[in-house]
Amino acid sequence: YYRISCNSHHQSITLPLAMNNQFSPIEYLVIDHYCSLNELASLISYTPQLRRLTLHKIKKNDLNSTILSSITLTNLKSIYMNLCQTTFNEMEIFITKIFSNLKTLSIIGSEDITFLDAHRWEQLILNYLPQLENFFMLYDDYVDNEQTYPIYTGRSNQFSSSFWIERQWLFEVDITNAEIEYTIHPYSKAWYNDTKDNIINCSIEHSIFTNLTLKSIADLMFAEVVSKEIERVLTITQIYHLEILEKNISIPELIQAVNLLPDITTLKAHSLSTDETITLTVKELLILCSIKET
């Protein structure tokens, strides 16, 4: 086990590629330091026995793919990469050159909407990661009036294909204030599995039913921000389950959220406001009455 840590963003790791017999017996390497993929390639050229790799801060630079051809890590089974400044294309090149025997892959990405292209992931895994058993991915997205973030323009619901269902990898979405988190993780039993209607009665079909969770959203932001975020989410996936963790959500806010999600089949609100001064329109009452208790 070996850990590299440094607080400076500008400090570089400068090593030449390993030559003959310049090898380390390290099997578990943690890099808690800003590191480019080129710098990483130089480091791991010294660790042919590496079994597990954790990278907390991958910084942006121009990846030189030619230096990857001489690196062989046949024992590497698990990798965690925080790609906060790295594109999907750069990550894809790096993985296809080095990590063919992976069993567990964990990725954090942002600022490159290609990370949400399920077809690209499917092709990468089928063609280059045949032994992969566990896949975890988190993509951070934002709705910010002061900055423009890329919008997904591909086909929606790609994470509900047979590829994802067969592997029992679940796609979910969380919204917290102006932040949207998209996650993929191995299937585990969820709250909507226990509804009276038993909507999900077969674990093989779980990936079809995407869950959205709303949590910790400021009252002043709900009406303006949540509608924009949900519209953004719906470009990627339909939502079938809605869980609201927000405390004392008002009935109009609840109705607003439900009204934006025409495909939801189950709803779980942890806390409703009891403000008696709120008045509802006839349309809002009809929507509220149509919500079935489960």
Average pLDDT score: 82
| Major sheet summary line | 11 strands, mixed
- Tell me the structural class: alpha/beta
Helix content: 10-25%
Q: Can you walk through the features of this model?
A:
There is one protein chain. This protein has helices spanning 37-44, 88-98, 118-128, 162-167, 219-233, 251-259, 282-290; strands at residues 2-5, 28-35, 52-58, 78-83, 104-110, 134-142, 169-176, 179-186, 211-214, 241-244, 266-269. The protein is of the alpha/beta class and 294 residues long. It has two domains: 1-102; 138-294, no CATH class. The protein has an eleven-stranded mixed beta sheet with strand order 1-2-3-4-5-6-8-7-9-10-11.
List keywords for this structure.
11-stranded mixed beta sheet; alpha/beta; 294 residues
Concise description?
The N and C termini lie far apart (50 Å). This protein has an eleven-stranded mixed β-sheet with strand order 1-2-3-4-5-6-8-7-9-10-11. By secondary structure, the chain is an alpha/beta fold.
Please render the helix and strand layout as text.
Layout: E1 2-5, E2 28-35, H1 37-44, E3 52-58, E4 78-83, H2 88-98, E5 104-110, H3 118-128, E6 134-142, H4 162-167, E7 169-176, E8 179-186, E9 211-214, H5 219-233, E10 241-244, H6 251-259, E11 266-269, H7 282-290
Parallel strand pairs: 1-2, 2-3, 3-4, 4-5, 5-6, 7-9, 9-10, 10-11
Antiparallel strand pairs: 6-8, 7-8
